[in-house]
């Protein structure tokens, strides 16, 4: 009987080169239909004959249809083993993976499509199809309340929703953000041009409500702020450090694990002078400044730097943040440089500059182990001294890395 022996890097079961979504190692299955999608052969129809002992009951009712959380049916301890094995294959190293303190209710942001088909997330592999949901267990109970109120808002105010295939309709997304340690909630409605009725009576539980207009042709869940109700920001707190969050600012999506992330970065720092590259809203820089380090941070996003300065101000720290690209920043004169680049990794010119002028200690934070590995090979004058994985994204195949590199 065909048995799933392993998972692919993307978290799909594998039998003889065929990928089986939502299967588990140890499952005995019968494949009924296979389609070639891009370069892969995917089992689009299959029957489970005998369950693997690794299988657990998925908490989400949309599991198997929704494109997210594709490992939710697999025991969490095995999810961690899978991520350790994934890092071993990519990096050639044994890397411990710190489990997420919570595996449900951990996400502090979800982007819900609001369509004529329903409210929810895209079906796996189908950009035009939305899986209608009542709540999102990885976000937590607030999602159920918000979705219920949204349905009432749409019905009572007769709001036109999105027809994805035709790319028509007014209300496109509802983005929920929640400070897990502060319990503050932000609701952001993303629309096309038009008029949004006052949503505040329906969302009285929210600390902050935003209306944003996406004036581009791109399918994105953000836009230009038209107006807001309630507070301008919500706050999150990580290990005693407060961060303000705006609809258009990035923040680590798992607040509970983000506490471990900032602590690990602080542990790896050497010396007193720290450069926080790709600083965003100052997640690392402000945390370190509060610990007594002398911090300078930069980001190419002007708005992110405005938020970083605001966050430095509310925490009463002296950290300096400025707008620049990684091509412009001087890396000399620091004891430690922190890099947390986009998934594409470090720019080749920055790699050469770090090799030539960088400090004794380089801390590399990455959500993409493959580009991390490529960059480390290109850094000829640094070697990995310590490395740790953090499961920021339970029930997905993704894993975060934090590594301390030292000059040879």
Automatic annotation (TrEMBL):
Known EC number: 2.1.1.190
GO molecular function: methyltransferase activity
Gene Ontology terms: biological process: methylation
Keywords annotated in UniProt: 4Fe-4S, Iron, Iron-sulfur, Metal-binding, Methyltransferase, S-adenosyl-L-methionine, Transferase
Active site positions: 367
Main enzyme class: transferase
Binding of S-adenosyl-L-methionine, residues: 252, 278, 299, 340
Coiled coil, from the record: none
The tRNA (uracil(54)-C(5))/23S rRNA (uracil(747)-C(5))-methyltransferase TRAM domain, residue ranges: 4-54
Protein family per UniProt: Belongs to the class I-like SAM-binding methyltransferase superfamily. RNA M5U methyltransferase family.
PANTHER family in UniProt: RNA M5U METHYLTRANSFERASE (PTHR11061), TRNA (URACIL(54)-C(5))-METHYLTRANSFERASE (PTHR11061:SF30)
Stated name of the protein: 23S rRNA (Uracil(1939)-C(5))-methyltransferase RlmD
């Amino acid at each position: 009987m065909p048995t799933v022996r392993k998972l692919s890097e993307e978290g799909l079961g594998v039998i003889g080169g065929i990928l089986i979504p939502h299967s588990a190692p140890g499952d005995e299955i019968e494949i009924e239909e296979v389609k070639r999608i891009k370069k892969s052969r995917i089992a689009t129809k299959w029957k489970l004959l005998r369950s693997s002992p690794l299988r657990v009951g998925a908490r989400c009712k949309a599991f198997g249809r929704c494109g997210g959380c594709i490992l939710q049916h697999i025991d969490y301890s095995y999810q961690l083993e899978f991520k350790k094995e994934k890092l071993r294959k990519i990096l050639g190293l044994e890397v411990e993976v710190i489990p997420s303190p919570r595996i449900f209710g951990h996400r502090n942001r979800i982007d819900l499509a609001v369509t004529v088909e329903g409210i929810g997330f895209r079906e796996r592999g189908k950009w035009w199809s939305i899986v209608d949901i009542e709540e999102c267990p990885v976000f937590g109970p607030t999602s159920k309340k918000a979705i219920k109120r949204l349905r009432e808002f749409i019905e009572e105010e007769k709001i036109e929703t999105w027809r994805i295939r035709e790319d028509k309709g007014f209300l496109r997304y509802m983005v929920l953000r929640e400070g897990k340690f502060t319990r503050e909630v932000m609701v952001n409605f993303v629309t096309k041009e038009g008029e949004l009725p006052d949503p505040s009576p329906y969302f009285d539980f929210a600390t902050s409500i935003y209306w944003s207009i996406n004036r581009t042709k791109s399918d994105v869940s953000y836009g230009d702020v038209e107006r807001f109700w309630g507070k301008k920001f919500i706050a999150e707190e990580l290990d005693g450090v407060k961060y303000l969050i705006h609809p258009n600012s990035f923040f680590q999506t798992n607040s509970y694990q983000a506490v471990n992330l900032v602590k690990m970065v602080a542990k790896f720092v050497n010396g007193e002078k720290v450069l926080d590259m790709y600083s965003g809203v100052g997640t690392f820089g402000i945390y370190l400044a509060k610990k007594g380090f002398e911090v300078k941070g930069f980001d190419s996003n002007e708005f992110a730097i405005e938020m970083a300065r605001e966050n430095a101000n509310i925490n009463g720290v002296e950290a300096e943040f400025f707008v620049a690209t990684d091509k412009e920043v001087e890396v000399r004169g620091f004891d430690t440089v922190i890099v947390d680049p986009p998934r594409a990794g470090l720019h080749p010119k920055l790699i050469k500059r770090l090799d030539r002028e960088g400090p004794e200690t380089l801390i590399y934070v990455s959500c993409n182990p493959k580009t991390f590995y490529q960059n480390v090979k290109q850094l000829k004058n640094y070697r990995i001294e310590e490395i740790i994985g953090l499961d920021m994204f339970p029930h997905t195949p993704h894993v975060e890395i934090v590594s301390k590199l030292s000059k040879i």
